């Protein structure tokens, strides 16, 4: 196995991959229509319980800041929360470090759903881990993903949030503002700490719509997909249960770089106007 798993553009662990179910995982027309109308789609089954447990075991090794391959992360924060009293483990680049988190990119239930929702072949952008420990888990403040991704064009992105624990209102599941994906791009107001910061950049009409968020409660192994402009966030975890999640961000094949600067830490720049492809942006397939 290569030291840097980004060199492998296919599953590296037959043990893990053959545990993916086989069959047709296409979404229904009703599910696709709901996504386009509301900006999100929750409750899509991606992983079986045994797969979730394998990922949890792999994740546990990442919590040690001195773990193997630690130099491969794009970002690594043992706590990105605003205070030490609340904890938000947030890291980008697990696909380069662990076989399980590498191989879920090719999970048929994920890839087939993503292709339908993005209306085309998908390339990997980057992954994220968002973990809130029991009793003192921090928040993820309200934001739009694409506000962090404007260095790519066109805006043809999609996010898949996969629960590694049951996620509900009490332990800090993702919450959405339905229809906010039809808003314009908002300024960045911060990812951790202040759940109220976004109010500063909303119009009165947007603020009124903002008052009715929807909690995307999930069972472990289930996912919620959302549009890159969807306003979303998650509140603190004060329960005696952890809330761990893996996030896969993708874009439609053909998206180009819109910057000559580094797109991800440690990744060579892609010249402005050039197609996003190569070692770090593989084309994903379920076959």
UniProtKB/TrEMBL annotation:
Family matches, as PANTHER family: ECTOINE DIOXYGENASE (PTHR20883:SF48), PHYTANOYL-COA DIOXYGENASE DOMAIN CONTAINING 1 (PTHR20883)
GO MF, any single term: iron ion binding
UniProt protein name: Phytanoyl-CoA dioxygenase (PhyH)
Keywords on record: Dioxygenase, Oxidoreductase
**Cited InterPro entries:** Phytyl_CoA_dOase-like
Asked if the keyword Oxidoreductase belongs to this entry, the reply reads: yes
Q: Which cofactor does it need?
A: Fe(2+)
Q: Does the keyword tRNA processing apply?
A: no
Pfam families per the UniProt record, alphabetical: PhyH
Family matches, as Gene3D superfamilies: q2cbj1_9rhob like domain
The organism named in the record is Blastopirellula retiformator
């Amino acid at each position: 196995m290569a030291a840097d798993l980004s060199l492998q553009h296919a599953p590296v662990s037959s043990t893990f991959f053959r545990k993916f179910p086989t069959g047709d995982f296409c979404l229904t027309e009703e599910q696709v229509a709901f996504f386009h109308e509301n900006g999100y789609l929750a409750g899509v089954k991606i992983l079986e319980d045994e797969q979730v447990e394998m990922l949890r075991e792999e994740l546990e090794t990442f919590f040690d800041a001195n773990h193997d391959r630690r130099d491969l992360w794009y970002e690594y924060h043992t706590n990105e929360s605003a205070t030490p009293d609340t904890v938000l483990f947030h890291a980008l680049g697990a696909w380069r470090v662990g076989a399980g988190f590498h191989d879920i990119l090719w999970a048929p239930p994920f890839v087939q759903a993503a292709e339908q929702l993005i209306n085309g072949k998908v390339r990997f952008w980057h992954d994220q881990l968002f973990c809130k420990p029991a009793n003192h888990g921090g928040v993820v403040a309200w934001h739009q993903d694409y506000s962090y991704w404007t260095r790519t064009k066109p805006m043809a992105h999609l996010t898949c949030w996969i629960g590694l624990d049951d996620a509900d209102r009490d332990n800090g599941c993702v919450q959405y503002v339905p229809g906010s994906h039809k808003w314009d791009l908002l300024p960045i107001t911060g990812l951790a700490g202040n759940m109220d910061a976004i109010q500063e950049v909303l119009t009165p009409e947007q603020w009124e719509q903002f008052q009715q968020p929807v909690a995307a409660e999930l069972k472990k192994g289930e996912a919620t997909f959302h549009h890159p402009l969807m306003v979303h966030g998650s509140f603190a975890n004060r329960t005696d249960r952890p809330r761990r999640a893996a996030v896969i961000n993708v874009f439609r094949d053909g998206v180009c770089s819109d910057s000559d600067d580094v797109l991800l830490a440690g990744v060579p720049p892609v010249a402005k106007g050039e197609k996003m492809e190569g070692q770090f942006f593989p084309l994903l397939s379920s076959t």
